[in-house]
Design a protein that fits this description.
Helix content is about 70%, strand content about 0%. It is mainly alpha-helical. It has one domain. The longest helix is centred in the middle third of the chain and has 25 residues.
């Protein structure tokens, strides 16, 4: 019996987006225009984050969406609207950016496992 799997369109898009590597172009620009490079990375993250969240919604990975809202959005909202003070205005947005980097790192290293079929550990399965 031969099993064929239909490609998941949204998982392929997420794979292409998370597999993009811009690090080869950054060192030259970082010496010449460090402020421009920081703004460019911020713009890329602002544009790509809603798209990543939409792909996670289409893939029905609601636990990832909840973890994003708790670990990234909540510190940002607390720092921007609720907690006031010079130290809180610096610490909480920085914490939100750090949490976003950790979130994307964990997402990058966990989405390849989503392609595996559910029954691969079933006794008698011929999946390799």
């Amino acid at each position: 019996m031969t099993l064929t799997f239909k490609k998941n369109y949204y998982l392929e898009k997420l794979s292409r987006l998370m597999g993009t590597d811009f690090s080869a172009k950054s060192p030259t620009l970082s010496y010449l225009y460090p402020d421009m490079l920081a703004r460019l990375w911020l713009l890329i993250s602002v544009l790509s984050t809603p798209y990543i969240l939409w792909l996670l919604f289409k893939l029905k990975k609601f636990s990832w969406l909840i973890s994003f809202s708790v670990f990234v959005l909540l510190p940002f909202v607390l720092g921007y609207f609720v907690l006031v003070g010079e130290l809180m205005n610096i610490v909480l947005p920085s914490l939100a950016l750090l949490n976003l980097a950790i979130f994307l790192f964990l997402l990058k290293h966990s989405y390849p496992d989503w392609r595996d079929p559910v029954f691969k550990n079933t006794p008698g399965s011929d999946f390799k």
